[in-house]
Amino acid sequence: MNFLTTRNDVLKKLDNFIENNLSEYTKLRNFDFGIQNRKNTSCLSPYVSHGTISEIEVINKVLKKHLFNKSEKFIQEILWRIYWKGWLELRPSVWDDYLISLKTCREKYKNEKKYLNAIEGNTNIQCFNDWVKELKETNYLHNHTRMWFASIWIFTLDLPWELGAEFFLKHLYDGDSASNTLGWRWVAGIQTPGKHYLASEWNIKKFTNNRYEKIKLNESAKPKISKKIYSISKSDFVSSEIADGKILLIFDNNLSFEFSDFKDKKFNKILLVNNNKSREISLSNKVIKFKESLLQDQLERLKNLSIDCEIIKIEDIKKYCNDVYALYPSVGENLDFINSKELKNIQFLYRKIDQFSWQYCNKGFFHFKNYIPKIIQNIS
Predict the structure, then answer these.
(1) Confidence band (pLDDT; 50, 70, 90) for 276?
(2) Long-range contact set of residues 8-15: C-beta below 8 Å, sequence gap at least 24
(3) Domains of the chain by start residue, with CATH
(4) Phi and psi at residue 324, to the nearest 5°
(5) How many CA atoms lie within 13 A of 89 on its CB side?
(6) Are 356 and 83 in contact (CB under 8 A)?
(7) Mind listing the pLDDT tens digit for each residue in 304-338?
(8) Number of Cβ within a 10 Å radius of residue 30
(9) Cα angle: 56, vertex 58, 61; to 5 degrees
(10) By CB neighbour count within 10 A (0-12 exposed, 13-18 middle, 19+ buried), where does 61 fall?
(11) Is residue 80 a contact partner of residue 147, using CB atoms and an 8 Å limit?
């Protein structure tokens, strides 16, 4: 599996999927046929998560070729990421508490053999071992496989979900704080209290095309329990008024400025922000290089449009004392850096699709799903 890092290649990948594979998506999407056969999924998540292409672009391209009722499931999957982000934006302390708990888990399990065996793929569960290897080698896992992996980690290997979420973020090309953290919470049974996801032998056998057998799992585990209840603490996402001639910061989640809501604004300079060293969760070298390649592609595209721009380290944004704008980086490591340095001169600009969609993220996804036609109407 090869993840190319230019926007042109990504658009070709999207067009090919829409033309040749989308019609079978609903029927085949839950099958993991192995690394060499990913035609039943788009494999676009690494690019959507970095903003190399946007959810709007994907959905609009899909609807030019397919009716909504024929592509609804795929569109729902594209919008899951916006839902997770919106849910976390309304309750940012979930992320803060995760990082606090993660530190405790790291200290407790740093020499624990079952943890070390798990991250090395050295357990007595062959499918899990294979997925560890696949994750490290390809920096990607099928979505259904991620659910199995997390369930085995939590309920069969009896390891903290926090460490599993860290392991994913370290190695996944598409890792982001919202989808990853909340996805692991959901499997554990604390995102929707009392409702967990239990991997089963028959399900893994069926949806891997019988590639695995004799899978010994804990299929009767109870959900994990969290007494913490998170109320909505933020609901105002208003972009700052934009004055001409200012600097714009772009982080690694918005890497298609020339197609953004702000493409026609007159910024003095655009700074693409690279964050490799100021993270609470260290990324693998392959993920770092992937991000750097996507940043470089955005840089070259902007320069081709005669836009003054450069790539800077996140630590260097402290040098800019005057007011600067930033495409909102979302709850996660980049926003944590801004808040920790109290950089109050940074004024955020929010994507219109986020501003409109996040109001519907106050409850579960099935509530959000009811508003998808309205969201599509708003963005089209």
Answers:
(1) confident
(2) 10/44, 10/47, 10/52, 10/53, 11/53, 13/42, 13/43, 13/44, 14/42, 14/44, 14/53, 14/57, 14/58, 14/61, 15/61
(3) 7-89+358-379 (1.25.40), 95-207 (1.10.579.10), 246-349 (3.40.50.620)
(4) -130, 155
(5) 21
(6) no
(7) 999 999 999 999 999 987 889 999 999 999 999 99
(8) 15
(9) 105
(10) middle
(11) no
- Predicted model pTM: 0.97
What residue has token string 């024929």? 70
Dmax (CA) of the chain: 64
DSSP state of 318: G
What end-to-end distance do the CA atoms of the chain give, in Å? 32
Neighbours of 204 (CB within 10 A): 24
> Is 243 in a helix, a strand, or coil?
coil
- Give all strands of the β-sheet with 346-349 in edge-to-edge order: 309-313, 267-274, 246-250, 324-327, 346-349
Contact call for residues 94 and 188 (beta carbons, < 8 A):
no
Give the CA angle between residues 287, 132, 115 to the nearest 5°. 105
Residues of the chain with pLDDT > 70, as a percent, come to 100
As a whole number of angstroms, the distance between CA 30 and CA 7 comes to: 27
Range in 72-86, 226-240, 250-264 the model is least confident about: 226-240
Pair 214, 37: CB distance under 8 Å: no
